[in-house]
Amino acid sequence: MLSDQARQVLRSTTLFAGFNDEQLDEVPKVATPRTFEPGEVIVTEGEQAARSLWLILEGEVEIRVGGELLRTEGPGSHVGELALLTDAPRSADVVAATQTTALQLTRDHLRGLIHANPDVGMAIMAELAGRLSNLTAAVAEILKVSPEAVEVAADHGIESLPGLRHPHLGAIEYAIEYALESGTSTD
After folding, report:
1. Per residue in 104-127, pLDDT tens?
2. CA-CA 20 to 30 A from 62: which of 30, 37, 47, 94?
3. pLDDT in tens, 20-62
């Protein structure tokens, strides 16, 4: 049985918001709790065949890409949900910023929860759709950075990033670097 605090944290997540107390009490039966010390790596960027989601119960974690801090997440956050659905490598490092307690939910565990409560599957789809929408909006903003910077990148022969299909991604990356270095506003 979950403590009231853990139940409250789980209920605050998009994945378990609609669960009643009995349903929430099922989560720790299929999830593995783990405590991480500050600086301890929870998820490693590029890791293959990682098939688990982490639900942060206590503490804070840093999300890093290429060693750069993107954001900090705390109780009620979840990281690694893409690994439950795809076999793609991990897209970021997740590092404990403070002592952190998290529940690890594997793909097999999640299947059992979804089978027992299909709303979990719908919540994951809604969360991923929201993140995709945010990413689409961010890319649209990036494209507005500076047409001149995109043109300069193209003039330097930067047309694409290896492994990606969109022919302008390399130019966009160069445009971002150019804008950051030159102080070009994105507003």
Report:
1. 888 888 888 788 878 777 777 777
2. 30
3. 787 777 787 788 889 999 999 998 888 876 788 898 999 999 9
Matching residue, tokens 């689409």: 136
Which residue blocks in the chain are alpha helix, DSSP H?
4-12, 21-30, 81-85, 107-116, 119-143, 147-155, 169-182
Q: Select from 2.30.30.280, 3.30.2280.10, 2.60.120.10, 1.10.1040.50 the CATH code of 4-131.
A: 2.60.120.10
Q: For residue 7, how far is the Cα from the chain centroid? A: 22
Q: How far apart are CA 71 and CA 22, in angstroms?
A: 33
**Phi, psi angles (nearest 5°) of residue 124:** -65, -45
Check residues 103 and 20 and name the one with the higher pLDDT. Answer: 103
Q: Where are the domains of the chain?
A: 4-131, 139-182
Among 101, 81, 100, 103, smallest CA distance to 90 is for: 81
150-176 pLDDT, tens digit each: 566 666 665 543 443 344 455 555 555
CB atoms within 10 A of CB 179: 18
- Report helix, strand or coil for 55: strand
DSSP 8-state code for residue 19: -
